[in-house]
Design a protein that fits this description.
Layout: H1 6-13, H2 18-24, H3 29-34, H4 40-49, H5 52-56, H6 58-61, H7 66-74, E1 77-82, E2 86-88, E3 94-97, E4 103-109, E5 117-126, E6 133-138, E7 145-147, E8 159-163, E9 168-171, E10 174-178, E11 193-199, E12 204-209, E13 212-218, E14 227-232, E15 238-245
Antiparallel strand pairs: 1-4, 2-3, 3-15, 4-7, 4-14, 5-11, 5-15, 6-8, 6-14, 8-9, 9-10, 11-12, 12-13
Length: 250
């Protein structure tokens, strides 16, 4: 494909996901130049593929490059895999949970991971955490809705969660331990950035809050595709999910 013009290459690349494009960067110097993060290619794709509400969201504007923003768009909430009491707002990165009584609801990400290291941030905008507000990982089989108020993420063997209301870890219907562990000096508040640090090579899930690392929460995760997810019970709750790619070293 060395004879193809940059215009033709950009047209071909426009059909690929960000993950596939990152792989293309490793093919040759010329492809890497076309796909360099600051290149016009990413700006054009961002303007074509994403709505204005997404581009104008403050959480997205904090991302540095158009490539980062497009990756965040492609790796935020699934438009299908959420309770019918939840809808995705026009910015595409924030879900809204309707005020429905005596029901627990889950929303999960559009794309999961089965290898490598990945980093998402979750921002719980409020109005409250309620009796249960859980953030973590789930398989594609996770139950999306259940009657009654439950910490639904972590109630079965196919989800792992940190209950922000109770400061405990949950999996397979059990409370595992206090988290953050004693001495961490962290109490999560609304509107803070809760980081999911997913290492599928070592099969661990860790968290940070506003960049402060809290340690590994779960080990020995299964070798299957896992998705970022939250469970919520409080009416009118809004939660944003932003993908950042590889976690920063340290």
């Amino acid at each position: 494909m060395s004879h193809l013009s940059e215009v033709v290459l950009c047209e071909i690349f426009s059909y690929l996901s960000v993950r596939d494009l990152c792989a293309c960067c490793c093919v040759c110097v010329r492809w890497a130049g076309v796909l360099y993060p600051s290149s016009h290619f990413w700006e054009e794709r961002l303007s074509i593929e994403t709505p204005d509400e997404f581009q104008e969201d403050p959480l997205i504007r904090n991302l540095v490059t158009a490539k980062d923003k497009l990756s965040a768009y492609q790796n935020s909430w699934s438009s299908v895999h959420h309770s019918d009491n939840i809808y995705i707002k026009p910015n595409k990165v924030t879900i809204h949970r309707n005020p429905v009584a005596q029901v627990s609801d889950i929303a999960r990400g559009r794309r999961g991971c089965s290898s490598g290291q990945h980093y998402w941030t979750v921002v719980w905008h409020g109005p409250k955490f309620g009796s249960s507000a859980v953030v973590g990982l789930a398989t594609h089989n996770v139950e999306l809705k259940r009657n009654g108020y439950h910490p639904l993420l972590g109630m079965t063997g196919d989800s792992w969660g940190w209950d922000l209301s109770k400061d405990v870890l949950r999996h397979d219907g059990k409370e595992y331990e206090q988290y953050p562990r004693e001495g961490a000096g962290v109490k999560v508040a609304l509107k803070q950035a809760i980081g999911l640090i997913v290492d599928m090579d070592n099969r661990t899930l860790a968290f940070d809050v506003d960049g402060k690392y809290l340690g590994v929460a779960f080990r020995d995760l299964p070798e299957v595709e896992l998705f970022p997810a939250i469970s919520v019970v409080y009416g009118n709750t809004e939660v944003s999910l932003i993908y950042h790619g590889h976690p920063l070293a340290g």
